[in-house]
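Entry:
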Amino acid sequence: MGDAFLQLHPAVRRFHSPFGTHILRGEARRGEVRMQAPHSWAARQLARLLGSPLHAVNGTIRFRRD
């Protein structure tokens, strides 16, 4: 992602750091996470494997990465 990574929300950057337990709760003022639908065939297959949404989502998504 290069420089675009620095433009991500701090919670998203923390989640993608390599160590520790992370919880992504969305924006504090709204408690909402926006996800775009996967566009490519490979992205849709990966979403299926990970149990991620296949369509755009606006709502609360909580998960842990250990």
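The longest strand covers residues 33-35.
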